[in-house]
Write a sequence for this structure.
């Protein structure tokens, strides 16, 4: 048995520092943290591996770890962005961090989006709620002048329950001026001075009816949104191989060892979190 | 190579090993046998027909283990280095040694190998004791193992009454036995007979051929609710299982330590998500996960069955659930119900 006893400890986080921290939503349930690396070598190692769609385990020492999708593209700078919904004790502690505070990070973990397979294709990016954060990373990656020519048309459909919960507002507002992409935002119920779509994401997708020709659709959202959006895309003519989604599960190690995120033959953390609908259809219904 | 080890010389041999190695051997601890450090006063439990209650995986993957230390005030991290002492585990049963080699596929292969597992694994020799009298809960021969299987072992002992026949299985174990006399061919034939008799004594618990496909096809059937009906969800089947490896990572804030603890898919909170969604909300889904993981998913992850037939889950289940019967029922359900429709 080949044994290498000098293996580094894969459970050891890299030290990070909060660069910027700000609320994304008016109800203060969503907060964005931008983290900088304490060590140059860690930064290099991170960006060598990083691909949009991957996630990290953020550590608040004394509280624990929480898996969170990366919400920034590599070209944006030497930092890593996360948008965190306040849910339990770790995310509460993450919300309490201020610029200058230290924390731990393990990652990037998981496969990320299969960007090289998508070259030359039209991309339809569909997100709902705070799950849009990894799609924001994807969109930012695609917008980079050196990356953009590799892909054809780009359509982004992003829904939230209310305008107050819409993330990355200023930046997304600027996307309407871009000629290389089409943006659709939606909220669930009408609000005064909201001049975009109103309705649930699956209905908005049906209404916009993106063409399935030479296209892939990427869907990230709460389970109920995903559940109804996937069949909407299928009925528009998207084959299961051209529909991608990112799964979430309770995770601990992020390395395919702790067993928690196992679905059939896959571990979400290691084999995912990004799967095509065709891959999901082949898995047991244990999600 | 095969050698003779007279039982009366065993203590002297273990003492000799103790000069160089930490020797662990099954000894009485309360009502059960457990692997404990050997001392000249140790009373070994080698005549008992079954394995220890506590699974020997714990000797490589402790039930609770510190993996990281930090200073909350400064955010400073202290890695815990994975160092292990040289050890001999004497008297491990073939089912448990095989389980250790199965867990290598989780902790010692591919990316992100586990340094804690590997350090202990590299420094440990496994000296097995074959089971000449398997008990009623054993089903190793149905689960790709056997009472004298050698997977994961550095040497295997066969009990021949007054002596053990020692079969050397690895180079690194050679020095442990170099003072022993070689076994005659008659003794080797005797050992062969003992081994065959033990294998023949074990009835077939289920047919493994085609079982994975059968289980996959009944995944969304109600049979799992029936199988889980009397389950208490206590998780003892998974904690005592020598191949279960699920763990939790927990911060113990009082001592600024991150700890890895055994966990179990039989608990509701295991898969409970922050949104309150639980993909396995009842014992039906959790029982299904336990059985499917061992009897279906392991094949896909490692091309191996994730059970060695050690029988602990059968022996210690407080309500007498028997994995053999559960697997038979689920497999038969496919034949009887799905094919009938």
């Amino acid at each position: 048995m080949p044994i290498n006893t000098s293996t580094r400890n894969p459970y050891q986080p890299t030290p990070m520092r909060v660069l910027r921290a700000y609320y994304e939503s008016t109800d203060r349930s969503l907060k964005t943290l931008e983290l900088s690396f304490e060590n140059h070598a860690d930064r290099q190692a991170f960006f060598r591996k990083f691909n949009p769609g991957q996630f990290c385990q953020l550590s608040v020492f004394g509280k624990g770890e929480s898996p969170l999708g990366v919400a920034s593209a590599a070209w944006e700078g030497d930092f890593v962005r996360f948008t965190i919904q306040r849910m339990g004790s770790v995310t509460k502690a993450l919300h309490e961090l201020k610029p200058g505070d230290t924390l731990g990070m393990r990652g990037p973990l998981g496969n990320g989006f299969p960007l090289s397979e998508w070259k030359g294709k039209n991309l339809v990016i569909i997100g709902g709620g705070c799950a849009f954060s990894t799609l924001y990373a994807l969109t930012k990656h695609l917008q980079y002048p050196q990356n953009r020519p590799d892909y054809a048309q780009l359509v982004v459909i992003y829904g939230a329950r209310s305008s107050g919960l819409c993330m990355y507002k200023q930046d997304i507002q600027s996307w309407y001026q871009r000629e290389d992409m089409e943006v659709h935002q939606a909220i669930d119920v009408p609000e005064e001075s909201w001049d975009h779509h109103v309705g649930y994401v699956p209905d908005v997708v049906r209404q916009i009816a993106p063409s399935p020709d030479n296209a892939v659709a990427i869907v990230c959202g709460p389970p109920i949104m995903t559940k109804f959006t996937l069949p909407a895309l299928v009925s528009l003519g998207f084959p299961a191989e051209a529909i991608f989604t990112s799964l979430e599960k309770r995770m601990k190690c992020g390395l395919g060892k702790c067993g928690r995120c196992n679905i059939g033959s896959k571990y979400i953390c290691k084999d995912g979190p990004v799967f095509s609908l065709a891959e999901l259809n082949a898995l047991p219904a244990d999600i | 190579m095969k050698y003779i080890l007279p039982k009366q010389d065993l203590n002297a041999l273990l003492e000799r090993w103790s000069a160089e190695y930490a020797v662990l051997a099954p000894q009485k601890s309360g009502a059960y046998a457990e692997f404990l450090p050997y001392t000249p006063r140790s009373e070994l439990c080698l005549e008992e027909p079954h394995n220890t209650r506590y699974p020997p995986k714990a000797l490589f993957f402790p039930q609770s283990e510190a993996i990281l230390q930090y200073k909350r005030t400064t955010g400073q991290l202290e890695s815990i280095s994975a160092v292990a002492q040289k050890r001999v585990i004497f008297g491990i049963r073939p089912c448990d040694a095989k389980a250790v080699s199965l867990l290598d596929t989780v902790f010692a292969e591919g990316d992100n190998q586990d340094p804690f597992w590997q350090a202990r694994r590299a420094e440990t020799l496994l000296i097995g004791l074959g089971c000449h009298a398997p008990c009623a809960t054993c089903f190793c021969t149905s689960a790709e193992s056997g009472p004298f299987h050698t997977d994961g072992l550095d040497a295997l002992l066969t009990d021949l009454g007054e002596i053990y026949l020692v079969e050397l299985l690895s180079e690194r174990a050679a020095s442990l036995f170099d003072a022993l006399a070689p076994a005659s061919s008659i003794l080797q034939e005797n050992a062969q007979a003992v081994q065959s008799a033990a294998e023949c004594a074990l009835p077939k618990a289920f047919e493994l051929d085609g079982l994975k496909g059968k289980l996959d096809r009944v995944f969304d059937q109600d049979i799992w609710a029936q199988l889980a009906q009397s389950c208490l969800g206590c998780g003892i089947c998974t904690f005592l299982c020598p191949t279960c490896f699920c763990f939790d990572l927990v911060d113990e804030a009082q001592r600024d330590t991150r700890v890895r603890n055994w966990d179990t898919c039989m608990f509701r909170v295991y898969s409970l998500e922050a949104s309150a969604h639980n993909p396995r909300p009842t014992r039906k889904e959790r029982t299904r996960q336990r059985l499917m993981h061992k009897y279906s998913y392991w094949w896909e992850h490692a091309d191996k069955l994730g059970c060695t037939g050690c029988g602990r889950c059968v022996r210690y289940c407080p309500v007498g659930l028997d994995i053999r019967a559960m697997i038979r029922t689920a497999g038969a359900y496919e034949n009887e119900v799905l094919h009938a429709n």
Notes: The mean pLDDT of chain A is 94. Chain A has two domains: 14-109, 115-246. The domain at 115-246 of chain A is CATH 3.40.50.80 (Rossmann fold). The two ends of chain A are 36 Å apart (CA to CA).
